[in-house]
Amino acid sequence: MICKIAFIMAAILLGLNIGGGEGAIGINWGRNNAQRLIPSMVVDLLLQNGVKEARIYNAQEDILRAFFGSGIDLTVTIFNFSSIASKDDAKRWISTKIGYLENSRIRRIYIGVDAFSRGITNKTDLQAALTAYTSMQEAINEGSYADEIKVTMPHPDYVLNMEKVSKPSEADFRHEIREEMHGFLRQLEANKAPLIIELLPIYQVINKKLGIDFAGPTDSPSHVIEDVNGAVYTDYFTVLHDSFVWAIKKAGVPDLDIVVGAVGWPTDGLPGANTSSAEHFYKHLLPYVTSNKGTPMRPGKPIDTYIHALTDENMNGDYFPFARHWGIYRTNGEPKYKIDLSGQGRDIFPTKANGIMRMPERWCVYTNRVKGFNKSAVVEQFKLACRKADCTSLAPGGSCSGLSFQNNVSYAFNMYFQTKFQDEGACSFGGYAVVVAEDPSTDGCVFPVEVVKGQQDNYRPTKSGQDRLLAPIFVFLLSVLWVLLNC
């Protein structure tokens, strides 16, 4: 992270991790929740846990105000990059944020979320994103912010040809976007801005049948991958990192700075995704990235890394069932597992969010006492609930994947009921549901009670982090329905 001397000296006095020292640990915070923590609560949570860098998926003023004077270095996202179609548009955007550029410590501006991966099939959107990037960079340069604020774009590992890769030296950018990517990388180099990469090691090792223990650093590696020049890899986090290093080397910009803008471990919706495996992943990963060991391609170089994500986002798309379960916190502000956000590897829970109230101990469950049993009618009500609420824990491999027919339906009804903040009108489902005070949770499957309705200002669901690619909602629903119909 390149800043003016004054900001570097201030960071040193505050003990911040800014480039040149040990790798920094940041956190991504998205707001795709029916129940959302208010911004001031989130800033307090970050400060209590000693988190010094954060990324948000918009630039809304209520969030920027909350970070005002916090000392946390902030990355903002211009999700709607079509709104920045010229340098004048970019200047207008800057003018509306001028009071926050310094006081809310905006240090990076991301253009879009995954423009290059979408550009594989949609070059029009990619060109619009590149226009927005160039326009914003020119406006930042003219406004004399170039030393303090870097403009860049995040890139999921899908932009690489990883399905063809057995070792990092074989990696390259996909041929459909290679020309545009090379031009973009040269611009980053000219502006001394980092390449932002987003890594999904658990998904990669499952796809490659390597076993989830190989996803991140560990004391007892399950596999070893050997590469050219004697490079040895014992985890897939470093494989993915150095695959990007090889790709930018082939692009002619081998020394470009790299920041891991998102790395995460879901706790549900995927075989092997649970709180125990998440705790193990971070317990080894975070001390590794702060150790300055580097990787085989970049030994001794810090790896600035942003954890994805602070909280679960139960309104993310569910074509990846696990995309709603990235959070190290539940939506009620309770930590799911132990994680030392300082990177020291201590066996501690992060602090809890303050000032959060739970709704009453009430659940909405399936009943056949009113209308009798009609399986097809009940299944239609189940589908209705899951279109509007989070049923991803029912997915194959999820924490609630082994429920009976009745409990499957009850889980879906309750998730919808809680999403509607326990409005009794939301527990009808054609007469097949009833509100109860007895917890219907089973061993391993929690039927949640959510928090009271928090701040809902500026609520606009957007894609967030690794909520991307693949298929629409009905693919997930079909997989759950198959299980449900065969109960």
Quick synopsis:
Helices cover 33% and strands 12% of the residues.
Verbal overview:
The chain has helices spanning about 5-15, 40-50, 60-65, 85-105, 115-120, 125-140, 180-190, 200-205, 235-250, 275-290, 375-390, 405-420, 475-485, and strands spanning about 25-30, 55, 75-80, 105-110, 150, 155, 195-200, 225, 230-235, 260-265, 295, 300, 305-310, 365, 435. Helix content is about 35%, strand content about 10%. The chain is of the alpha/beta class and about 475 residues long. It starts with a helix and ends with a helix. The protein contains 13 helices and 15 strands. A hairpin with a 2-residue loop joins strand 11 (about 295) and strand 12. The strands form 4 sheets. The protein has a 9-stranded parallel sheet with strand order 5-4-3-2-1-13-10-7-6. Strands 8-9 form a two-stranded antiparallel sheet. The chain is globular, with a radius of gyration of 23 Å.
List the topology elements.
Blueprint: H1 5-14, E1 25-29, H2 39-48, E2 53-56, H3 61-67, E3 73-78, H4 87-103, E4 106-111, H5 115-119, H6 123-142, E5 150-152, E6 154-156, H7 178-190, E7 195-199, H8 201-207, E8 225-226, E9 232-233, H9 236-250, E10 258-263, H10 275-290, E11 294-295, E12 298-299, E13 305-308, E14 363-366, H11 375-388, H12 405-419, E15 433-436, H13 473-485
Helix pairs in contact: 4-6, 11-12, 11-13
